[in-house]
Amino acid sequence: MTPETLAETHAAAFTLTRPWSAAEFATLLDGADTILAGDVRCFALGRIIVDEAELLTIATHPEHRRRGLAADCMAAWQAEATRRGATRAFLEVASDNLPAISLYHRCGFRRHGLRRGYYRRPGLDAADAILMVCDLP
Question: Does the record's keyword annotation contain Acyltransferase (predicted)?
Answer without folding.
Answer: yes
